[in-house]
Structure formats: structure tokens, C-alpha cells
Fold this sequence. Notes:
Elements: H1 2-24, H2 32-41, H3 47-63, H4 68-75, H5 80-93, H6 100-105, H7 108-113, H8 119-126, E1 130-131, E2 134-135, H9 136-141, H10 144-189, H11 192-242, H12 245-268, H13 275-279, H14 286-295
Antiparallel strand pairs: 1-2
Helix pairs in contact: 1-3, 2-3, 3-5, 11-12
Amino acid sequence: MNTQLQELSISEHAQKLGxxxxxxxxxxxxxxxxxxxxxxxxxxxxxxxxxELGKRLLILKEMTPHGEFSKRIEMLxxxxxxxxxxxxxxLKFSKTTSMSLLEKSGNGTKLLELxxxxxxxxxxxxxxxxxxxxxxxxxxxxxxxxxxxxxxEAKSTIESKDQDLKAKDQVIQKKDQKMNELDEKLTKxxxxxEIQKRAETEDQQLEKAALETLSAESLTLLNAVMRYQNAINxxxxxxxxxxxxxxxxxxxxxxxxxxxxxxxxxRSLGTQVDFENMVSPEWLFPNASHTESEEE
Length: 296
């Protein structure tokens, strides 16, 4: 039973290897020994060599058990990082619709430098466009160092533009948010319910201010009356002390004249004030009106 399971597992693995080889365009033998021999052959740095080397490394990695791949590439004199770059080149540039970019690269070192490009950037260049100063024509004539510098500057410019766009988008979003909030506030402010509420509030504020003014002026008047009464008492004290009888008469005249003017003023306001009833209200002296009626 275990033997059958092992055979089934080996068969499935072989099928996966066959599919991977077909996808990568590899037509050599699917054995570890053959792959290692061809890897040694393709360790030169031409574009074709880099692509073919990457293909074989991918298949070798798939064929070997976990942990064994690192040991085998170490024996081949290839670091794990370098192997990863070769394999990534195949996975990235095998997607291009034409071989223009691979042909213009000229050597594998340039091709490895082009790994920094995104898939969209690769498609643009392969279609005849440019990313910064990097295009099919400039890739062909640039040295590896110049290409590396141009790629770094192009990526930096793209990232800077992306950051600017993000910053602008954030500003626009904030402005839109503020506009929406303002629009919402204005809509609420101009709603019938808010207008009525605001009108009621304004009326209440006006009423409150008017009553506060009236209360303050009433207090001022009462204070003035108290001072007037104190002045009258001073004059009466002087008349009593010096025996000046005429002062009594003058005080009476002054008081009568003053309160007549107050009475006239209250009438001009349309308010009838019964001073006698205010001083001696009927409810305070109920028997007085009854006695007067009997006398009549």
C-alpha cells in the first residue's frame, strides 16, 4: 500500500515538473545531473544564459527536497541571493509580449539591473515607451553603471510623483469632507425647523435683553426716589430744628408736583396707576369702605 502511494506521489511530482518545464520553455532532460551540468554551462552572463540559468534553477528547486536546493547551488558556486535573482528574472521577463527588451539588454548584468522595474514599467519600455531616461534605445547604449543610475533616478521620480499624487488626493479628500460637512451644516441651518428654532431663540434673546434693561432702569429710578426721600427728610429735619414753618409747605408742594409728573408720565405710557389704592389698598382696609358706605 505504501509503495503504491509513493509511486502515485512520484507520478504527480513528475507531472508538475513537466508542466513547469513547458511553461518555462525548457526542453532538456529532467534529471538533477543534467540540470547541474547545464547550470554550469549557462553561468556566463549573456541575456540568454541568465534566462536559461534561471529556468534550470527553478526546475532544480522544484525537483529537490526541502533544504537540499541550497546545498546544491552552493556546490555550484551560486549564492542563494544570486540564484533568487536569476529565478526572479525568468518569472518577470517571461511575461513580456516581445523579446525587444531582452535583446536590447545585451548582457545578463543589465537584465538583472532591470529587475527593479515593475511589470507595468517593463510593458511600457518593451512597447517603445520610456521610464525616465530608460528606454529600449538608451538601454542598448548605456553601460551597466549608467543604466543602474538611470533606473534609480527613474524609480525615485516615479515614487516622488506617487507621493505627490497621494498627498494631493489626501488634500482633495479633506476638502471634499469639509465641503460635505459645510453643505450638511448649511442644509440643516436652512431647514424650516432650524429657522423657526432660530427665530424663537432670537425673540427670546431680545425679550430677555429688553427686560434686563427695564429692570436696571427701574432699579435706577427706585434709587433716585430713595435719594429724593432722604433729601426731603433732611429738609424737614432742618425746618423742625430751626422752626422754619414755610419749609413744610414748600416740601409738600415739591412732593405733590413731583409725583404729579410721575402720574402724568405713567398715563402717557397708557398705564393707569391708582396711587391712593396702591398706598391704601381695599384688601388692606376692608372695613374702611364699609364704614364710608354707612355714613353716606
